Amino acid sequence: MRIAIIGSGGREHALAWKMLQSNRVTKLFINATNASLSVLQKCYPKKSISFIDISDSNVDGIARYAKDHHIDLVLIGSEQPLALGLSDMLIKFGIMSFGPSQAAARIESSKAFAKDFMQRHGIRTAAYSVFDDCELAQKHLSEIDYQVVIKVSGLAGGKGVFIPANLSDARDIIHKLSGQEIIIEERLSGEEVSLLAFSDGKNISALPLARDHKRLLDGNLGPNTGGMGAYAPVKLPAELSLNSLIDQTLKPAIDGLRQEGSPFVGVLYAGLMLTDSGVRVLEYNARFGDPETQVLMPLLKTDLLDILEACINGTLKNLAISWHDLSSVALVLASENYPYQPSPEQALGGIDQLGNTKNLAVFHAGTKTLDSEQLVSSGGRILSVSAWGESLSQARESAYQAISQINCKSSFYRHDIASVANNNSYALAGVNIAAGNQAVALMKKAVRSSYGPEVLAGIGAFGGMYHAKAIKEMIDPVLVASTDGIGTKISLALSYKRSKTLGFDIVNHSVNDILVQGARPLFFLDYIAAAQLDPDFIAELVSQMADACKQVGCALLGGETAEMPGVYHPGGIDIAGTMVGVVERSRALPKANLKDQDILLGLASSGPHTNGYSLIRHIFKDIKLDDDIADALLKPHRCYLPILKATLDHEQQPIKALVHITGGGFFENIPRLLPENLRAELTAWPIPPLFLELQKRGHISWPEMYRVFNMGIGMVLIISPDHRELVKNLINEPLIAVGQLRKGQRSVSFI
């Protein structure tokens, strides 16, 4: 038979790869614009493979080409030609088509139709409302009491789903999508799986259950994408079975479409969420998934062509489809700027050496071959590496070993695909105990490097133990403790792959918080919580904390690492900690002798530190940051202990008070330590360019800037004018004149 495959992604390459394994296929036609044509020709030199130089959207041209070239059967891989009616056009020309009619394909091409269809046929899905009016959609947000997901109703190439962080974010997304039909639906929590089935319009035969990792970054962080990797099969909780999922989600959809006069012939894909209250359908697709196809085709034993014919001829129930008892993993290699904007072409190397590896395949998507035969990247998702083996861990190891050998300068891939797949009750609830244990093992050495002899029990114990002999030797010791977190800076850092300073952020912030009481740190306890743990990321983060602790002479005594799906949304992560320090009571700050004419001096910040990032993310929400701005925004929170140590230890105690400029800026932090009869008069100082840029881009009022940001000053010293020269000599960096204290009601003002 003469077969054509329509589409130009890794999915279509995998389908062609499988199709060419059939002895019945004499000639294959593909319209893939990537390098898969030349790859397939090398892999199957005895097969005849030709290129169709016609766009997916030209359904009339494809149908006429198929007729003119005597093509027997067309497999439609991508969604756009289905939505445009290619299947109907092919049937009109007397050509067998594997893919639903335009009417049946509405189950994917219109999410509004799909949601209403599910409601009509009793298929359980999330609560939803459909809008084509921006104002009505905004009003709806004020009337509901649940967190939402916002979806573009039409086709969006896997990038039409938005998960807002808060109400303000949701409103911004709706405004951005103004003019399009959108769905606002309840955000569900649970384990997400992909269930696909062949259908002849009446009967169905399910493929192995798969899982697609849609978020861009490790730990399920970053925006939704077309998919960064997948694995199959997925093991279900004991209370569920594949048949029960089929009966709840696929069978009623196939029956419903047939009853409504649009029988579905092709592959129906159900994206499912396994929630605490049962299975819910997130969406339907009218074709094979990508990258699910790249893990499913290697598992298929039955001739793919036999299956397609059975679906088209209505005889699927007579065909026994069999699958290899193996596991499969696919990893997506993506270009540097994916999914934000196109990336320049980059040379691809190392793939030829993988070509003959057993149980491994490379499927091309955004690639092309230059005249020089040089293979280069040409799209967002460049390729996927699929590996299969006797166990999931074996397949995963093979896939990661292979992808690490591919050379492409400006590319990346996730490191946690299939990392939480194991069959214990916690894992089925979305919790991966093994990942937590692995993280502890990886971080132990770094954490223990911060210990001195005073640490009696630390990481791995039920509670940290710190010998108090140093405190006992003090005259009148006062313990000082502070708990804080990084906030949304972590989201920006992970989005721009600059997470190597987050551990320093939380430790340095905490040191500064107790420093304003004059205390020196003794030990630090960290807290990291996420929807899903990535052991390597957690270990790196805690190692950073250990290094930061060593720099200030305290111990990272221990902490808590928690994986809490359902409490944190996918991709959600929180980093916090508690610092405990000590100070002699006689040297504790602030002093009680603050008075009129005392002066305020500032120490420079390294940037926004760990405050104001919700506003920063809002300012840059539609902008891809260049490296200079990203670096400036994400510099670590500065630690002021090394700078102030000599001054705090000086016998004259020249510092009367310290103010750490954190959340609330100058207007809220300075009044905390002022008596009721003193106010602070602030004077102008040179504002660093980064803060000027934030004010300009965000159109933020100047009072609000000083309320949110540190404006280039991270720590304020209050001293007597008589001690200005002494402090200047003790501090080895420029001091910035900030203002002075004056008599009056406690407040802060600018003069």
N- to C-terminal distance: 85 Å
Query: Which stretches of 5+ consecutive residues score pLDDT under 50?
Result: 421-431
Largest sheet: 6 strands, antiparallel
Structural class assignment:
alpha+beta
- Taken from the alpha-carbon principal axes, the silhouette is elongated
Beta-strand segment tally: 35
Rounded to an integer in angstroms, the radius of gyration calculated over CA atoms is: 31 Å
| CATH topology grouping of the domain at 589-751 | Phosphoribosyl-aminoimidazole Synthetase, Chain A, domain 2
CATH superfamily of the domain at 589-751: PurM-like C-terminal domain
Mean of the pLDDT scores?
Answer: 90
Looking at this protein, list some descriptive labels.
751 residues; alpha+beta; Rossmann fold; 60s Ribosomal Protein L30, Chain: A; Phosphoribosyl-aminoimidazole Synthetase, Chain A, domain 2; 6-stranded mixed β-sheet
What does this structure look like?
Strands 12, 15, 18, 19, 22 and 23 form a 6-stranded antiparallel β-sheet that branches. Strands 31-33-30-34-32-35 form a 6-stranded mixed β-sheet. Among the domains are: 2-98, Rossmann fold (3-Layer(aba) Sandwich), CATH 3.40.50.20; 431-588, 2-Layer Sandwich (60s Ribosomal Protein L30, Chain: A), CATH 3.30.1330.10; 589-751, Alpha-Beta Complex (Phosphoribosyl-aminoimidazole Synthetase, Chain A, domain 2). α1 (10-19) links the parallel β1 (2-6) and β2 (27-30). By secondary structure, the chain is α+β, with helices and mostly antiparallel strands. Residues 421-431 have low confidence and may be disordered. The radius of gyration is 31 Å and the shape is elongated. α8 (134-143) packs antiparallel against α9, α15 packs parallel to α19 and α18 runs parallel beside α19 (535-552).
